[in-house]
């Protein structure tokens, strides 16, 4: 058996990687431990939110599946950050935990060039520093030109509730043993992180009369390609912790998994457990808890904000201190998992390992947390593994091109102190890299490399033409005071639209072309006009950074012998940045160091023999 691309693990990274690799024409195998858990959402079944919705739409713009599958499976959706400007609005969907995976599996099953296989991988096939396949526990050796590891929380995974623990990748699933050992033999430096989840509670035992319903925004879309088609609606409610809740957690703090067991303590700071909240914010007693439905066909509720690893009887007592949950019953307990991860500075921005050929890594294995972060890496690893196997040059999304670029740039240049989660604030280009314009930003580049088909790209162009017509009309059309009484004389529509109280929809009566735009396209036009000044400022920063990003540094570039600081030398040799832009963001690398590297690059030599010449 031999493949172009072997993907290990059908989580969120693995599904995107395998789908896109196959779409690019690579003969692809997706091996996963248990087909029934393809695209499982082991924590909150929610997709999107600040920083993450941009990733979802960028994955979608590259032809990925996450947005389309979300459109088919969400049961509640909202626009977050609404109190801020529309440029940072973020769509978030509560998806049905059972429909999302089945929709994903359905699409993978129909993908040409893609084979699915249930098997547990326990090692890599490699020769010195080149990987050429995987070994399965049942003794098979499967060869591939490239291998992508997307094993999530499974590498030597162990789950915990208080002092109890058991080897597992997630609750009820075998851990992955053997792969970590091979990675270490291949010279990877590895770490260990943890993450935790909340109990799932029974909606029949919740008194919703004491909870507040959360607003729902119907009709939201997570994909350019397919209209939303939600299977139904189930509301989200809100309740709050109180002084008794937090006191009970604090009284039992020594029974949390991180204190009562040998679990590593490095967890996601931006997603703290209720136990950490009790310690970090001792004065705060009221924490908002969202009661989020797990699916249409189940009574399980995910109490978002209540990740916990205390003994199950105490979990129950903690929950029952909350108004509305006095009689609550737990269906599944909260627990934590710790697992091996690979420090991602050992990867190129294609997500191929720097020192091991043909091995790509994506998702939680790289120290990230979150479905969207995993899927975003998955699509980039999938594209590049396929391109490599097919003998084509790599495809990258750089920091100035999108949130995916920011994510991968940060992973490959910064030491992680904890599981990495995407946040809007991580991007200095967040006004330009919005969820609503991902398709316009990335489609052309994706099409130029065959990642989007001609038919797909034609659809993008067709919609773009409609938007351009509206942009032109806004520039050309003079609006008379009869339409807007605050005007004293006719003014160009574009100028009127800059006023905060005016919206594009108000102009349909004299610019009929607006009516054919979708709500999201209207929003894009409105943002581009209203925030033109801010966008231009960000764009000029982007253009200056782009110049640095376009200067590639060869992987074998020799820093020894260059007149740069010792500090810069150490970090550059360790990190091996792919571009001058990446080098500029490394702690310890100064402008003077960059000038020296730039001059060496301009001289046109990779400087391979410089140290021996001096
Ligand atoms: C308990 C828990 C709590 C979490 N809490 C949060 C949170 O608070 N916030 C958050 O954003 N995210 C959280 N998540 C993380 C979220 O689930 C992951 O970030 C996301 O699923 C990672 O996607 P992935 O594709 O990298 O891996 P996963 O979704 O974990 O998928 C890995 C896949 O690989 C397969 N696999 C593993 N090893 C092998 C092998 N040897 N052979 C074959 N197949 C293999 C598995 O079966 C699985 O299908 C939590 C996860 C868990 C388990």
TrEMBL record:
Residues at which NAD(+) binds: 267-281
Subcellular location: Cytoplasm
Entry keywords, A to Z: Cytoplasm, FAD, Flavoprotein, NAD, tRNA processing
Record protein name field: tRNA uridine 5-carboxymethylaminomethyl modification enzyme MnmG
GO biological process, one term: tRNA methylation
Function: NAD-binding protein involved in the addition of a carboxymethylaminomethyl (cmnm) group at the wobble position (U34) of certain tRNAs, forming tRNA-cmnm(5)s(2)U34.
Cofactor(s) needed: FAD
Domain tRNA uridine 5-carboxymethylaminomethyl modification enzyme C-terminal subdomain: 529-599
Principal cellular location given in the protein's record: cytoplasm
Subunit structure: Homodimer. Heterotetramer of two MnmE and two MnmG subunits.
Family in the record: Belongs to the MnmG family.
Encoding gene, per UniProt annotation: mnmG
GO cellular component: cytosol
Molecular function via GO: flavin adenine dinucleotide binding
Superkingdom of the source species: Bacteria
SUPFAM superfamilies found in the cross-reference section: FAD/NAD(P)-binding domain
PROSITE patterns (UniProt xref): GIDA_2 (PS01281)
Residues binding FAD, per UniProt: 9-14
């Amino acid at each position: 058996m031999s493949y172009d691309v072997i993907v290990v693990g059908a989580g969120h990274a693995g599904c995107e990687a395998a789908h896109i690799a196959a779409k690019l024409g690579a003969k692809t195998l997706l091996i996963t431990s248990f087909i029934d858990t393809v695209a499982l959402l082991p924590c909150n079944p929610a997709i999107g939110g600040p920083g993450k919705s941009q990733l979802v739409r960028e994955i979608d713009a590259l032809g990925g599946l996450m947005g389309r599958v979300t459109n088919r499976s969400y049961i509640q959706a909202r626009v977050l950050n609404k109190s801020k400007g529309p440029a940072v609005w973020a769509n978030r969907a509560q998806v049905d935990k059972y429909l999302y995976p089945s929709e994903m599996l359905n699409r993978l099953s129909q993908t040409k060039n893609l084979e699915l296989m249930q098997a547990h991988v326990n090692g890599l096939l490699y020769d010195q520093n080149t990987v050429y396949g995987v070994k399965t526990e049942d003794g098979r050796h499967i060869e591939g030109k490239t291998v992508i590891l997307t094993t999530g929380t499974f590498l030597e995974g162990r789950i915990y509730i208080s002092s109890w623990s058991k080897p597992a990748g997630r609750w009820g699933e075998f851990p992955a043993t053997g792969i970590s050992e091979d990675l270490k033999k291949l010279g990877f430096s590895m770490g260990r992180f943890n993450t935790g989840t909340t109990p799932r509670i029974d909606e029949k035992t919740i008194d919703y009369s004491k909870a507040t319903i959360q607003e729902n925004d119907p009709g939201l879309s997570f994909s350019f390609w397919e209209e939303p088609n939600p299977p139904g609606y189930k509301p989200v409610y809100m309740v709050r912790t109180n002084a008794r809740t937090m006191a009970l957690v604090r009284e039992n703090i020594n029974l949390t998994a991180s204190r009562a067991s040998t679990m590593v303590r490095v967890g996601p700071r931006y997603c703290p457990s209720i136990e950490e909240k009790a310690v970090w914010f001792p004065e705060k007693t009221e924490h908002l808890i969202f009661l989020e439905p797990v699916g249409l066909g189940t009574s399980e509720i995910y109490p978002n904000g209540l990740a916990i690893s205390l003994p199950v009887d105490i979990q129950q007592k903690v929950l029952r201190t909350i108004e509305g949950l006095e009689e609550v019953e737990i269906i599944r307990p909260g627990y934590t998992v710790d697992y091996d991860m690979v420090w991602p500075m050992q990867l190129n921005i294609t997500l191929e390992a720097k020192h091991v050929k043909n091995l790509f890594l994506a998702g939680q294995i790289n120290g990230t947390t979150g479905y969207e972060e995993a899927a975003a890496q998955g699509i980039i690893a999938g594209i590049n593994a396929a391109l490599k196997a097919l003998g084509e040059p790599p495809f990258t999304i750089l920091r100035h091109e999108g949130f995916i670029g920011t994510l991968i740039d940060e992973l490959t240049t910064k030491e992680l102190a904890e599981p990495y989660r995407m946040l809007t604030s991580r991007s200095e280009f967040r006004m330009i890299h919005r969820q609503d314009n991902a398709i316009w930003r990335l489609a052309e580049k994706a099409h130029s490399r065959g990642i989007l088909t001609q038919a797909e790209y034609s659809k993008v162009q067709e919609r773009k033409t409609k938007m351009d017509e509206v942009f032109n009309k806004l520039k050309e059309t003079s609006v008379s005071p009869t339409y807007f009484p605050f005007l004293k004389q006719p003014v160009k529509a574009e100028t009127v639209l800059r006023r905060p109280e005016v919206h594009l929809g108000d102009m349909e009566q004299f610019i009929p072309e607006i009516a054919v735009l979708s709500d999201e396209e209207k929003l894009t036009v409105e943002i581009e006009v209203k925030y033109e000044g801010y966008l231009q400022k960000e764009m000029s920063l982007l253009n200056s950074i782009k110049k640095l990003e376009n200067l590639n540094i060869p992987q074998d570039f020799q820093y020894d012998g260059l007149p740069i600081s010792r500090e810069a030398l150490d970090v550059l040799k360790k990190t091996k940045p792919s571009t001058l832009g990446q080098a500029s963001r490394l702690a310890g690398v100064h402008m003077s160091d960059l000038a020296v590297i730039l001059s060496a690059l301009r001289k046109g030599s990779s400087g391979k023999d410089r140290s021996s010449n001096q």
